Amino acid sequence: MKKFVQVLFLLFLGFLLFYLNLPVVSYGFYGIGVIVLVLALFYFFISLGFGIDSTGKKVMIKSRPSKFLLFFIGIILVYLSVIPIITTATIFHASKYQKMIGKVESGDKISEHIAPISMDKIRVVDQKLAYLLGEKIIGSQPALGSQVELGTFSIQKVNDELYWIAPLLHSGFFKWFNNKEGTPGYVMVSATNERDVKLVQTINGKPLKIKYQSNAYFSSEIHRHIYFNGYATTGLADFTFEVDEQGNPFWVIATYDKKIGFSGENTNGILVVDAQTGEIEHYSIADSPVWVDRIQPAEFVENQLNDWGELVNGYWNFSNTDKLQITEGLTLVYGHNNKSYWYTGLTSVGSDESAVGFVLVDTRTKETTFYKQSGATEFAAQSSAEGKVQEKGYKASLPIPYNINGIPTYVMTLKDDGGLVKMYAMVAINDYTIVGVGNSMRETLTSFKSVYNMAGNKINPSNVAAKKSISSVISRIQSDVRNGNSFYYFTVKDYPNIFVGSSQISNEIPVSIVGDSIKVSFDIDNEQVIDVTSFDNLNLKLKE
User: Bridge-partner residues for 186, per DSSP?
Assistant: First the structure.
């Protein structure tokens, strides 16, 4: 009877450990081994028979565990220690780790991947600001704010617009217990317009209920729901909340296996889980829905890029010859055809200001392109932008790379201590001393181009091919003073766009009037207002 009770308790303890920890039941994962070891050691101690000797003073072990149990515990210890060292240690498998990222293609110009973008499409809201704006809209509804909290914001494109999206989560056990059908929706914050904040609570007139989530309990907790519905033997990572083009909420989870013993995590597909019904769909990488932006977890890609750069000449490279490391982590950016990429700079080991190149990794396929060109690290760009407004004490957001008229450019916001956007900054990736700041994105672009052109275009000579020159007559001209700087807006005959320039471009602009014949050069641009890069007043030349 005693033996039966021990086994029954052991089974209960085993179920509890599995239910709470959700270990992957597969070779290469530590969790299952640790739980089995805990159960075996527990059974080892309860199977010991203790008694008192004849003197009544000394505790004695009357019965000992079976040799099979001791052998079993030894096997588990070998599984958790010896086998991982042999099959996983970098010293034995350096080449495999270095190749985990796959084939790394060489890119010529980063603008080949990052498409030109209009000013109204530039990301000006980062994750921290999105959270502040999301909390504000929830706080405006007291009944809702006391019941839920915001989940993690993830950036994604919905109907070709960029949004930060986060689910509403239960704020505690009793809030979940009283509202088991789910939380009422999610928050969408436009990444390009901080005034565009939406609390989405209905889809096609039907109320939203996020039943399956990380802050739910028992079978409604998203990981546990997946685990006990056929995926106990599958590695799961990167639980990301995404919505499809109709606004329906889903959890997108990467499935992975291990390629190098107990390490070498490699994504092999995704699970798409309906956040309302719990329905699970398993897709390969190639067959994943097109609305899913990210399949490759940032953590996996970051580790693989570091191994690729660290182990370039094998493990025994203590002189750090040709070693590379990523700079500031990974940033999700969008390029041609709305493709999304993990972006990071690469710097030589020991260097902290200058990047030797930049990497773009397709967030779906993991196709990797390395642009071997010198430039500023993200940190150096932030410091340069903050230095421009050091008297204000603003802090720069994480830089986002863009293709601004063929110029690889970091764009960031400058925020006050309260996290609110006060100004904008652009920094040339190739040279972080070329900085433009302004109170609006248009003003920032004008300032940036002025500084860039004053540098003699020495940083990117190929950009000359993207210029255009016209000769015409001024039909209207007007000055505008912003932030202490004078800008001159003018139109010309037979050209639809508005041009803008300053005295930094040419001293002839301030003295030009309607009817003057001029010749201007400018970057080929789809914007309504175009910055000129050179300005010649032909009338003034004739008078000379």
Answer: 167, 200
